[in-house]
Structure of DNA polymerase III subunit delta:
Amino acid sequence: MDNIYVILADESILIEENLEKIYAKAKQEGFTEKNTHIIDSRSNWAFLSSNSDNLDLFGSKKILEVKLLGQGPGVKGANSLKDYSKSLDPNTLLVLIGEGLERKSISSAWVKALEKVGTLISIAPLSTSSLKVWIKNKAKELNIEIMQEALQLLIEKTEGNLMATLQEIRKLSLVYPSEKIDLDKMKKSITGSSKYSIFDFSNAFVSRNTSKAIQVLESLKVEGTPETLIIWALTRELNNLFKVSKSGSTKGIWGPRNYLDSLVKTSREVDGYKILKAYKRIAHIDSCIKGFNKQNPWLGIRELTLSF
């Protein structure tokens, strides 16, 4: 595998799909440590130069995960990345994640420098036709087949939201294991939806209704909701909070009025440091899910929910 991967996309779920493949291969090749750096405008990029200055041909293999928060690396970061690309450590895997960056970032000099010595994965937003393919593939992974009319109903009900769609597909695989999902089964599944959805949790989290968030979280855990789905929801809310705290506006963020009002209210109550700290805790929980750390992921999610 390459020593550098750059993943650019608008949807955290699409990013995660690629990360899972990269990290699974990395573990097979002996990468046992993962360090995550959350980047904002105040970040110090010294970790890149210190890493390249201390090449250790016999040391442990480690993953250096760099997450850009809704914006490029800036001039200092871009220069640091270009310098890093000139002196690679064979025992270090650099994975740079850019979620929600402007499309013109793909043609940036720092992206081209990293792509020259690594792999660029740029994922365009899903069109209606590619969304259908994505749903069919997800269903196949869970050993079910969704028929055309049922697939169309699913898209209409979830409005193309990937988190909601994936939650429904997982539920279908539990209710109708190894079966073909026709329109009747889809209607029954959607009508008999769970008491709480992933969005009930994320809405409670973003409005800082801790007791409600914990109640929903426990319900989702009992129903078998995967930890990764919770992490994606939390990341989405932090991304939205970060955007609103920077711009003072909810422009460009989709959601009902009460959700947007909660974003504005919470962005005024929570400082940037608290959001950054939450990002770092999510990165740690994600490492636990992927087997790089040993804490129970559900415990980590609960602790983050209680402390935010």
